[in-house]
Structure formats: C-alpha cells, structure tokens
Design brief:
Helix content is 72%, strand content 0%. The protein has 279 residues and is an all-alpha fold.
Length: 279
C-alpha cells in the first residue's frame, strides 16, 4: 500500500540508521502511529514501534496510548499487553486503554481480570473505565461480575451515566436476573429514553408484560421504540385489542409509525378482524 509522505520520510530515516531525537517531537510520533491503525502499513508500523521503544519515547503516555491503538487496530492479541507492561508510569488513561483493548479484541476475561488488578493498585476509576468493564460483563454474560460492578458503583459513589445504566440493565436481563435489572433501574438517577426502553425491552423479553407496562406508563418521554416494544409485547401474548389501542394512541400523540410499528400492528389486525385499521 502507498505510504503517507511523513511516514515515508520517518521510515527512510530509520532504515538509513538515523534515530529520532529532540527534532522529532512526541506528538509527531503519536500522529504517525495513529495513521497506522488502519492496517495498511503494518510492517512500517512495527518499525516505528521498535524505534519508539529503543529511544525511550514509550515513557510518554500519549505515545504509549498510540502504540496500544496501533496494536489493537491491527488485531495483535499479545502485543498490547507487552506495550502496557513496558510503560514506566501507568495512570487511569492507560489502564482504561488496556481494558478497552482487551474488550475490542474480545478477550473479555482478561479485561475483567485487569480491572481487578487496577482496583488492587488503588487507581481512581473514571466513568470510561467503568463503562468499558460493564460492557465486557454484558458481552461475556457474566452475572457474578455484573453484580460486583453494581456493588462497586454503589459503594464508590460514582454517578453512572445513562450508557452504563442501560448496559447494566441489559446485562442483568440477558443473564436471566430480571429482578436485579428492575431494582437497579429504579435506583439509578440517570434515566434517559434509552434506559427506560432497555427496561421495557428486557421485561418483554422475559414475557413479563405487566412489568414492562410500568416503565412505559411512568416514562416522562417516549419515542417510537417505546411504542413499538409495547405494541409487540401485547401482540406476542395475543392481546390484540390492547395492541391496536396503543397504536391509535400513538397516532393521536403524533408519533409517526415506522415499518416495525406497522409490522407489529398488522398481525393484530389480521387476527382480530380489524380490516379498517389494517387498511
């Protein structure tokens, strides 16, 4: 693949025996590494990587972060941890980047293990790290670790955002613990429409229509997904009149149905003989 001009100059310098010094500043090296994430020039990226380690620029958290990005972007499963272990100073950003690297490489068990190590060295956690670990729990389907994260969030006093809340609710639901999902849902202060919809969806996934109706009735603002979930929920249990009534309420409140809405509504129309509504 063609090599960008700055990278070409840098590689040519390395191959002729030159080594980076004060004239090649760290931000430039970081930009070179970021440009290599696409995987088009892996061999050249390895040369940049080696030169960074030899010259000691790996001590820069910005360059180290770029090295991790390069390794993950090109699918290297072992190299990110080697880069991480070579870093002389580990702060919150680098710990978080390494955990995210494991999640991106679908090494979810390693991500959770590294999080436990991170807690053991008393690194103050940020919301990005928490979101990353919770997403790993979700992908792994690890109910025990999800509960651990839930307890940690409550004890640490971290104010979780809507993303973390929705992921944790989804994790509980997918792991079959709807009660835990419901308890966390009502406790969390950060409820946007996605969080409300996630609780509705998980309730209906477990065929608990009554539990799904509660957040639907209480949510301050609905979107099309909210209506679609409940219409489909009524349809799935054969309550066609309720499904059609919701559809009419949706129209009255000036929500524009989408294809999923119509698909969910046509079945009750056909089964209930509501030809005018289906038309």
């Amino acid at each position: 693949m063609p090599i960008d001009t700055p990278l070409l100059y840098y590689i040519q310098g390395l191959r002729t025996g030159l080594r980076p010094n004060g004239h090649v500043i760290l931000p430039e090296i970081r930009l070179l590494l970021k440009a290599l994430v696409s995987g088009k020039n892996v061999n050249e990226g390895e040369e940049v990587h080696t030169s960074v380690v030899r010259t000691g620029f790996v001590s820069s958290k910005f360059v180290s972060g770029a090295l991790l990005g390069f390794s993950v972007g090109n699918g290297f499963t072992c190299k990110p941890r080697w880069v991480f272990n070579e870093m002389p100073q580990l702060g919150l950003v680098l710990w978080t980047l390494m955990i995210r690297a494991y999640v991106c490489l679908t090494l979810l068990g390693e991500a959770l293990e590294l999080f436990q190590t991170m807690r053991g060295v008393s690194v103050m956690l940020g919301m990005v790290a928490v979101a990353t670990v919770v997403s790993a729990c979700d992908l792994l389907g690890d109910l025990g670790f999800a509960k651990t994260m839930h307890c940690f969030i409550e004890k640490s006093g971290i104010e979780v955002d809507a993303l973390v809340s929705s992921i944790l609710i989804n994790t509980y639901g997918e792991c079959g613990s709807l009660d835990d999902a419901y308890r966390f849902f009502w406790k969390t202060a950060m409820k946007n429409v996605v969080v409300w919809n996630t609780m509705i969806h998980q309730s209906l996934e477990h065929n608990n229509l009554e539990l799904g109706k509660q957040p639907f009735d209480w949510m301050p603002k609905r979107d099309v997904a909210s209506w679609n979930s409940m219409i489909q929920g009524f349809t799935n249990v054969g309550q066609y009149e309720e499904a059609l009534a919701l559809f009419h309420d949706m129209e009255i409140l000036v929500f524009r149905p989408n294809t999923l809405t119509l698909s969910s509504t046509l079945s009750p129309c056909a089964s209930h003989g509501a030809l005018e509504a289906g038309a």
